[in-house]
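Long-time lurker, finally posting.

We've been working with acylphosphatase (Ottowia testudinis) and I want a structural starting point before designing mutants. I don't trust myself to interpret raw outputs, so I'm hoping someone here can both generate the structure tokens and explain anything notable. Sequence follows.
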Amino acid sequence: MNDEAIARHLRIHGRVQGVTYRASMVAEATRLGLAGWVRNRRDGSVEALAQGGSPAVQALIDWARRGPPQARVERVDVAETEPQALPPFEQRATA
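Top reply, 14 upvotes:
Generated this for you. Predicted structure of acylphosphatase:
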């Protein structure tokens, strides 16, 4: 499997705010060694940008479809994006 860096933009829909989704995603992404960020959106969704090796990014996407136990994920939209200079995975302010 190719471990070259890839980047994916995620938009997570459902009951994903107020259920430790962002903090849990930071912990999972950090465990996977990914760069990027996660933030709440004013429309009630959660948005994230994950970058790293393909297997690790896919593992985070798989995790995002479940989320933490309190979350009820309805849908995860995933889009390819170009890798860029990103910090270690962090939680950002609502956009």
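Before you design anything, note these points.
Helices lie at 21-32, 54-64.
DSSP finds two helices and five strands in the chain.
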